[in-house]
Write a structure and sequence with these properties.
Radius of gyration: 27 Å
Structural class: alpha+beta
Order of helices and strands: EEHHHEEEEEEEEEHH
Number of helices: 5
Helix content: 25-40%
Strand order of the largest sheet: 1-2-4-3
Length: about 220
């Protein structure tokens, strides 16, 4: 079974009494089975966790990989029938993600213009008659959408716009009625997803798979 604390997962085993009886007869083979199971957890659990997250969220795999995991061996221990070996924990870290990781559309601001022109102050516009206003075609309107919760395509508030910042193209929202200040639109972090809707699914996937791997290694050691 996988124990969870914050964004970290560590290995423990359920039905300890039954497993202890098997391992007590195996001597060194029991320790080998546990060590191999811990190794399996470190290498395979990221895939199980990613699968669990993507069952509930529309996030791309690149964002999940970018948030971790960092393996921390020796962070916990496995104790079965007097055998104690280093276990492992996987730490996921990362800031809240922008909508670009959740199938955002459009990916960039449309370049087109509206066919209907509007009047704007013309102080900086040269006109034949010296008119104080000018007629221009405003940028084409668009709505920024993303799938944060799987199966739920969400539209962001009117006025959300896409622009380039520090080499990245991101969606932004203005804090007030003025052009500035603006903030990048952000959603959830990977640790928040792990401890949110995906929590039970991830724990079930880890529990089922780690038990299978442990049973496999026990059987191999008993041959």
């Amino acid at each position: 079974m996988a124990g969870r604390k914050g964004g970290a997962f560590s290995v423990t085993m359920k039905d300890g009494a039954k497993l202890a009886q098997k391992i007590a007869k195996m001597k060194e083979g029991g320790e080998t089975a546990i060590k191999r199971t811990v190794s399996d957890f470190t290498s395979r659990a990221p895939g199980w966790i990613s699968k669990g997250i993507r069952q509930h969220y529309g996030v791309d795999t690149a964002a999940i990989k970018g948030a971790g995991p960092t393996a921390k061996k020796g962070a916990t221990h496995v104790h079965v029938s007097g055998i104690a070996v280093d276990a492992a924990a996987l730490e996921y870290r990362g800031r809240t993600l922008t909508t670009t990781h959740f199938g955002q559309s459009p990916k960039a601001a449309p370049s087109g213009r509206q066919s209907k022109k509007i009047r704007v102050p013309g102080q900086a516009v040269k006109t034949d008659g010296g008119s104080p206003v000018a007629m221009i075609s405003p940028p084409k309107k668009y709505t920024v959408k993303a799938t944060i919760i799987k199966g739920n395509r969400a539209s962001f508030a009117p006025g959300t716009f896409i622009a380039s910042s520090n080499g990245a193209t991101l969606p932004f929202q203005r804090k007030g009625t003025a052009r500035t200040p603006v903030d990048a639109v952000r959603t959830l972090s990977v640790p928040q997803m792990i401890s949110g809707k995906a929590k039970e699914t991830i724990e079930q996937l880890i529990s089922e798979n780690i038990e299978k791997r442990f049973e496999h290694h026990v059987q191999q050691a008993m041959k």
